[in-house]
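ugh finaly. both done.
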Amino acid sequence: MSTSLIYRNATVYELLIRALYGRYYPDRYRAVEGLVPVGASVVDLCCGPATLYTRYLRQKSVDYTGLDRNKRFVTTLIKAGGQGKVWNLTSDAPLPEADYVVMQASLYHFLPQATPVLDRMLSAARKQVIIAEPVRNMSSSNNRVLAAIGQRFTNAGDGAQAHRFTETTLDEFFRPYVARVVRQELIAGGREKLYVLNANS
């Protein structure tokens, strides 16, 4: 299945993300970067062109592995000096282990069955799982044209995604994991919500 234009080119992807987040664009990465200590191991799921690594984590000498189903993005990451693997998260294969397992703005791709993905993240993390997920979305706009664009431009290779989280539904999603949640807060001007969960013991 073909992907949306933004998933075919790292530059186009970054330009769109910058346009959507405006002045809050760096904040979404800094919020995650600040949670990862120097020298930690990180697995980044649905890593895209690995901006989190190339601009924020590489300087902290982390042991970084990015997973994405998009071979172009993985190739971009490897050329930048990181470790990358082509990976389909809809499979039930165990994830590589790391101190921190991260996902930014991608959990909605697995709705309505995102729970198995989070469970595999918790099993792979030695310390914490970090998830930052959009809760204000163009695809849920009352403007039908904007909503259609938002849905069509989010096909990472498995079809356009009509489902999105709101802050309320994201909080509901994490409610069964409340005993593991050590931090939750709105970031990037309220566009995303950050959740940090302690790993399985």
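ok and the 2nd:
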Amino acid sequence: MKRPAAVPALAWPILFLLLAAAGCSTLNGTRLEPLLGADVNLVRLGDRVAESLLTQAVPPLLPRQPDQPVLITTLVNNDQLAETSSFGRSFQNNLAAGFVSRGYAVREVKLRRDLLVREEKGEFMLTRDLQEMAGSQRAQAIVLGTYTLANRVMYLSVRLVDPADQTIRAAYEDRLTLDANSLRLLGLQFDDNDGCGPSGPVCPPVPSVLDRVLY
């Protein structure tokens, strides 16, 4: 019986580079972040959230129904429900792309006046507006979302709501350790002093080896 061939010494550096190239944001906030951490890919995250909501929805949503669209609102700060950020507005677009790519009609709410639209802030859906929206828009579902921040950690909550009876038909929860780009979308400033911590200013994320090599 032949023994398996030994891995050439040259293969280990190549393997290391492949692992580094596959840096993952889920490793942010761990001991591996300096080595294999990565930016939070909002495009990929929005697609994953859309897939999760559609898979859970009971009863299922109907694709290719332009007269029964899905409305996707701006994500808001859970501590200040009337406030959003560049993150909230950008992730709204990422969610919309995830639904559209799967064949679901998404109404562009930026062109409507049925929502509470605030200049340079976004589109907000108040609970008391849901039933009114059900009649005026004939929406089969509305996507609502909030985020809560604790230093570099974001707790993300996105829900698929039936506008007729306000029941939650699907929900997605996630815990993200944010990178420099995501934090800037939230308008946060870094503090390079030793005093930064969970109860103080946001600490700068540590660039991964991959970022230092390539950028």
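summary for the 2nd one i guess: DSSP finds seven helices and eight strands in the chain.
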